[in-house]
Amino acid sequence: MGTDIKRYNKTLVKKIIIATWLCLAVISGCTKTEAPDPKENKDQEGKSILLGIIPERNIFEQMVRYEPVARYLSIKTGMNVELKALTRYGNIVDNFVSMGLDGAFLGSFTYALVHEKLGIEPLVRPVSMDGTSTYHGLIFARKDSGIKTAKQMRGKTFAFVDKATTAGYLLPLVFFREHGIEDYRTYFRETYFTGTHEDAIYDVLNKKADIGAAKNTIFYKIAKSDKRIIEELIILEKSPDVPENGLAVRKELDSSIARELKDTLMHMHHDEEGRQVLRNFGAERFIETFHSDYAAVYKYAHKIGLDLTTYNYLNN
Length: 316
What we know:
Elements: H1 2-31, E1 48-53, H2 59-77, E2 80-85, H3 91-98, E3 103-106, H4 108-118, E4 121-128, E5 134-135, E6 137-142, E7 157-160, H5 166-178, H6 184-187, E8 190-193, H7 197-205, E9 211-215, H8 216-225, H9 228-232, E10 233-238, E11 242-243, E12 246-249, H10 255-267, H11 272-281, E13 283-288, H12 295-303
Parallel strand pairs: 1-2, 1-3, 7-8, 7-9
Antiparallel strand pairs: 3-12, 4-12, 4-13, 5-11, 6-9, 6-10
Helix pairs in contact: 2-11, 5-12
């Protein structure tokens, strides 16, 4: 009798232990708060996505900055996300068609152009380490040039970036209009396009051009490593804030793919791998972006009578 009781107790203990483990497993599964791994969604696995990047900086620097983001997207979504570095801003409209781009990281004016011509839609844009998600254009000259007004610019050399940029072209056009400069081609001795914001800044710094235009984020980024930027250049004008370069996709792209790209980028700051990629990219996180965020670009274009649907964005 005593032996039977002992056996019964041992069996009961085992059952209690097993039941406890099962309960813990169930509770653990039910209370888990981590977001599901995007890789568990197999719907998009193996699909290829081609994203363009504009030449804000030189092509090598752009690829170094964006490739980790594309790699992160590939790992998290299961899709094969590839990048195509564009040699000129103005190529972006043609490249969407000829290269079969699914989307691109675009500046504000470039976005407006492609939206009007092809109907692309914005998804996200980065928030920089200082908490801002916008930029503005600058017009600048050397301090020792004596140039401080539009009148003093007459007969000088002006360095634009590209006809498809807000900071590097649209801002100067508005500035010229506001100061009575009807035809900048005859007002200046020479005007030309540098192709990148960095080159426009250095062309003025190194006296190749008298005046230049570029975006503030590039201007001050360079200034961190080259003190001459602040010491030798003077800011003459700045534009309203516009959205930082963000990701926009073609309107025909499968909505589930667009949603997965958007969600993955917006949540990447929640895991350590994503935070590391963001730090290298120079951002805290990505935030949702809407067409209405580009209102300042459209207002600027309207101010100078520029029709984005027919605008010739090729440099000449």
